[in-house]
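Supplementary Note 2. Why include the ligand at all?

Several targets in our set were suspected to adopt different conformations when bound, so apo predictions alone were not considered sufficient. For every target with a known small-molecule partner we therefore ran a joint prediction. The input for manganese (II) ion is given below.
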Amino acid sequence: MTDTDLMNNDKFVLELIEKSEKVKQILDDSKKIIITTHINPDGDAIGSALALYHFLLSIDKDVWIINYSETPKLYAFLEGSENILHFTLMEHGKLIESADIIFILDLNDLSRLREMASIIESSQAKIVLIDHHLEPKSFADIEIIDTDASSTGEIIFKLISSFQGNKISKQISESLYTAIMTDSGNFRFQRTDAALFRIAAHLIDCGADPVMLYDRIYNTVSFAAMALLGEAMANAKLLFNDRVNLFVITREMFSRTGAIEADVENFAEKTLMVDGVEVGILITQLPDRDELRCSLRSKANISVREIASKFSGGGHFHAAGLRIYSGNLEENIKKILTEVEKAVINF
Ligand SMILES: [Mn+2]
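The joint prediction is reproduced in token form.
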């Protein structure tokens, strides 16, 4: 299969070729490169960062991945994840300021970098943004954005292929497969199509092990996490003519089961498993601080991103999220349900 076969029928390709030419130009003059991604990184964020990291190392660059949040343990098996740095201003401020290029992955708003944002803004480095979220804010020197992509990993695959052809290393293949698998909900979400499977198949040809990767990501939860999911499901509520399914995870449920915040990662998808449900809501009261996290999922033509935006949240049409930092649980649930009800009634 040639490079273009994997990118065929894709209106994004021409744009990508042009942008990758620009990236190539700035790479030629650069040595110190930083890669970063959003707070609470998911599989797409970590997998994309690692794939780009391995690629840049292979072309002899000095590369650091510096993230505001720690890497979730779930992804610690990926090669190179042990080198991901957990940001502190003291340790990494100077390094970021003196970088030649900063790659920002899988986000469309600098606020998702928290305190790293202002240092990046004051850096002389060229900023390259690679992302697939809707309605990006413009802040980078080069922006490679494909809102039709399943994942940032899919875009990184195309970018790396445009540089060196699509023969890629096992490390990069595993990272990219993880990125694509997790952000497509294990090849179930809307943007899963034949083209995505062709990329996945190619990554398997290049050394990614789909059985092992599935097992590591989806089949390795703790007993406590399973118990928490059980409680969430046992207490789920169908609302608004059974079109909405609500999971609420309270602080008490965390302490009763012994589960931790990271265990909730894949719960949101399960809200949509019920026949007839169009919107799934997962509300999580974080165990250790005053913060309510809400993940929204939808089927059909309901934009949960629009609902999330009412609370300064964001994301994708069918998968979005928001956070609330004050008020009591019951009141906040009511506020969220009010907005969900409007969206469901209007549809
Ligand atoms: Mn993503």
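Residues 6 and 199 are 6 Å apart (CA to CA). The chain has two domains: 4-217, 223-346. Comparable summaries for the other entries are listed in the accompanying table.
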